[in-house]
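INFO  loader      accepted 1 record
INFO  loader      residues=68
INFO  predictor   begin
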Amino acid sequence: ADEPTGNLDPKTSRMVFTELLKICRSEGVAALIATHNLDLASHMDRVVLLHEGKLHEGTDIAAEYQSL
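INFO  predictor   done
INFO  writer      dumping tokens
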């Protein structure tokens, strides 16, 4: 999903992500989500940043983002 909560307020955005995570975990499936919201991304099981055409994977996305 590309920016599935881009036009939503923060509270609704968090609710959508929470429900999406519940569904993925209960069904044992993955979801690929593109977002610029680092706060929401930090709640995901795995985060990969795309910067200048290169993928950067790390567990601390705030630190990873700051290092770019």
